[in-house]
Specification:
The complex is a heterodimer of chains A (251) and B (104).
Chain A: H1 2-21, E1 27-36, E2 39-54, E3 59-69, H2 71-74, E4 80-87, E5 94-103, E6 106-114, E7 119-126, E8 132-137, E9 143-144, H3 145-153, E10 165-172, E11 175-190, E12 196-206, E13 218-222, E14 229-236, E15 239-249
Parallel strand pairs in A: 9-10
Antiparallel strand pairs in A: 1-2, 1-15, 2-3, 3-4, 4-5, 5-6, 6-7, 7-8, 10-11, 11-12, 12-13, 13-14, 14-15
Chain B: H1 2-21, H2 29-45, H3 51-72, H4 81-102
Helix pairs in contact in B: 1-2, 1-3, 2-3
The chains are: A mainly beta (251), B mainly alpha (104).
């Protein structure tokens, strides 16, 4: 009986925490820069937004991540990418994931609909190619790449010790990919209009050749209840870059 | 030897100019710094020649342009109506798709 009560309380705490942390109407703007000859050059703006999507029967949290090159780059390599996920606001379980990319003339659109029994139906279309429909199975806790960021923000890092990890599984390009986030410790970083903030420093590792180096792929989340991403450093085969928070509104 | 410094200065000045025109930000400062150094050495070696001085002036103006661009030109994303329409369309489609999912 006591055990049941404890779990009900725990469940409510988790639900309350998730709802409290991921608010609808949040907008986070980042400047994306890439290292060229040892100097960081601003390339694009990345915007993460949350909104409420109402249907006749349910309410969803619309999570979106947009990437657009700064106008000075548009004539050379224009990028207009949008990644969207429609999730249950309480559990952050995705129902629909959409990806629409335009990168220097190359286009690709992708859509996943998440079924109740772990079946994902996908529809993808690449430039000058026919539409491809597919169906595949995923694990019960597998989430899309956009939801992953928000799920990470719902993690209680205050109770973690340096070296401990959080393991999540994401689905990308119709493949499941386990990703782990190692909690390194706390560090104070610049957080745009929020000023300087003490942040949780996390190192990302995944079994992929797209991420290079040990502790070179880092995410900094403010060490408060909101856990706003302030700085994201990445090291990929073609170089290193970072996303720096410039503005956070509606938090 | 002075001719070599002048040639090197011209080569790096051209790189600096190209990087200034391209949206490379402060990267242009690397070839400009090298061009300035070589032009300065050339002047020290042949103080009476006019060309290295003109070259130094051109490189200096290029340096001012790069600094001016960094200080006064802000990074902005162009108002892209096509992208906005893609986003609106995607949202409308998503609403329909979610309704369909709920009715399965």
């Amino acid at each position: 009986m006591l055990k049941k009560k404890f779990f009900t309380l725990l469940f409510l705490v988790v639900i309350f925490t998730l709802q409290a942390q991921i608010k609808s109407g949040e907008s986070l703007v980042f400047a994306g820069s890439y290292e060229m000859r040892g100097l960081m050059t601003n390339i694009a703006q990345v915007t993460m937004k949350t909104a409420t999507m109402q249907t006749s029967k349910s309410s969803y949290l619309h999570l979106s991540l947009e990437m657009a090159t700064f106008s000075k780059w548009d004539n050379y390599f224009k990028i207009r990418d949008i990644y969207e996920s429609f999730v249950n606001p309480a559990t952050l379980k995705p129902a629909l994931y959409k990806r629409n990319i335009f990168e220097g003339g190359y286009t690709k659109s992708e859509k996943y609909t998440f079924g109740a029994n772990g079946t994902v139906k996908s529809v993808s279309k690449r430039k000058n190619r026919a539409e491809v429909q597919n169906s595949f199975k995923i694990g019960p806790s597998t989430i899309d790449v956009v939801t992953l960021i928000y799920k990470l923000r719902a993690t209680n890092f205050a109770a973690m010790k340096p070296g401990q990890t959080v393991a999540l599984t994401l689905v990308f390009d119709e493949k499941q990919l386990p990703v782990s986030f190692k909690y390194i410790g706390k560090e104070t970083v610049a957080a745009g209009n929020l000023g300087k903030k003490e942040c949780y420093k996390l190192s990302v590792t995944a079994n992929t050749n797209k991420l290079k180096g040990k502790d070179k792929n880092l995410i900094y989340l403010t060490a408060d209840a909101k856990k706003i991403p302030t700085l994201i450093k990445f090291s990929i085969p073609v170089g290193v870059g970072q996303l720096t928070l410039t503005s956070a509104t509606g938090i | 030897m002075t001719r070599l410094f002048i040639i090197l200065s011209i080569v790096f000045a051209v790189f600096g100019l190209v990087f200034t025109i391209l949206p490379m930000g402060t990267i242009a400062l690397v070839p400009i710094a090298l061009a300035l150094t070589f032009a300065f050495i050339a002047i020290l070696r042949q103080r009476e020649k006019l060309f290295p001085k003109i070259l130094l002036l051109i490189i200096f103006l290029n340096l001012l342009t790069v600094i001016g661009k960094e200080v006064f030109v802000k990074d902005v994303v162009e108002d892209d109506k096509q992208f906005e329409s893609v986003k609106d369309q995607s949202e409308q489609e998503a609403q329909k798709e979610l309704e369909e999912l709920e009715n399965l």
